[in-house]
Write a structure and sequence with these properties.
alpha+beta; Aminopeptidase; 8-stranded mixed β-sheet; acyltransferase; N-acetyltransferase; GNAT_dom; transferase
């Protein structure tokens, strides 16, 4: 079951407490994805990708919304309008069923300011507005305290620690967090 089309009036979401908005992923966000491909950003995700892999990821991010299976957003710091990271959700086959997975990343220069929590909260509202899902899963690395803290702060329930294949062919220890919508 795909996600329904979004309301154009909801294309940009702003959080008044933390000055961040999420904007739909576009062709102009390739450079942001390149910046996010740094070793310090990918240490919990199997390390940096090649330029070809980054370009393919960018194309996948743009196709997700077209296919109706999720949405990727750039995280924009306000009022400067600086690109600070990404957040998104997509369908995934997990333990024999389709689930809605969520993931995010904030560039190192912007970490520690609550931007990830604010951006993920806005993305959760985007999923909720779709009305097509009852739960969201997040699978941060077990050794990634910042991403696990985002899950705790936003009311996700820790299901347990799991072995997770990411990227394909590489296994890592993750926490399975679930949020009921």
């Amino acid at each position: 079951m795909g996600l329904q089309d979004s309301n154009p009036e909801e294309e940009t979401r702003v959080n008044e407490r933390t000055p961040v908005e999420i904007v739909p992923w576009s062709g102009g966000h390739l450079e942001l994805l390149r910046r996010m491909n740094a070793p310090e950003m990918t240490e919990h995700l199997g390390g940096p990708e090649t330029e070809a892999q980054v370009a393919e990821r960018h194309e996948r991010y743009m196709r997700i919304a077209q296919k109706g299976t999720g949405r990727m957003f750039a995280v924009v710091l306000l009022p400067e309008r600086e690109l600070a990271g990404s957040v998104g959700y997509w369908e995934r086959n997990w333990q024999g069923r389709q689930v809605c997975e969520m993931g995010w990343g904030i560039l190192p220069a912007y970490q520690g300011r609550g931007l990830a929590t604010a951006a993920v909260a806005q993305a959760i509202e985007a999923v909720r507005a779709q009305g097509a899902r009852r739960t969201i899963h997040a699978y941060p690395g077990a050794g990634n305290p910042a991403s696990n803290a985002v899950c705790r702060k936003l009311g996700f329930t820790l299901i347990g620690e799991i072995e997770f294949e990411y990227p394909p062919g590489s296994w890592m220890r993750c926490n399975d967090w679930r949020l009921a919508l």
